[in-house]
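Teaching assistant's notes for section 4

Start the section by putting this record on the projector. Ask students to predict, before seeing the second block, whether DUF356 domain-containing protein will look compact or extended. Collect guesses on the board.
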Amino acid sequence: MNSLAVIRANDSSKLRTTLHDLVKYGHMSYANVPKRLEPSFADSILVNVMKSPLKSGCTVAAVVPLIDSASAAISRLRKIHPPAHVIIVSPRHKIYHELIGCIEMLPEAFPRKHPIQKKQAIPLYGLNILPSVTA
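Reveal the predicted structure now:
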């Protein structure tokens, strides 16, 4: 994990679209699943990293660890225009180590409704055959 992307948005659909755009158009790779952040904490991260006053707050926020380096992520981010505000936090920022310490305890931004399960073999007349999925 080389950097973190903090995403601030006005609604969850913009947040979800931005997460998708970072992968599809920004060619960034996630080291883990996106985690939900408190909007006020995301606002304080922006003030800490940008060293400028906040113009407007967000209503939803997430953080996702990136495999890409901070410089590569920033240069790729400049080429796309996601619908939400994205802040790349590198190890040189003081807040980076605080985020790394608490990222495992944060809940998933978009939890799965059904956990992923492995298919189990069903014995059929003495043969172990995986069940077929029919639509």
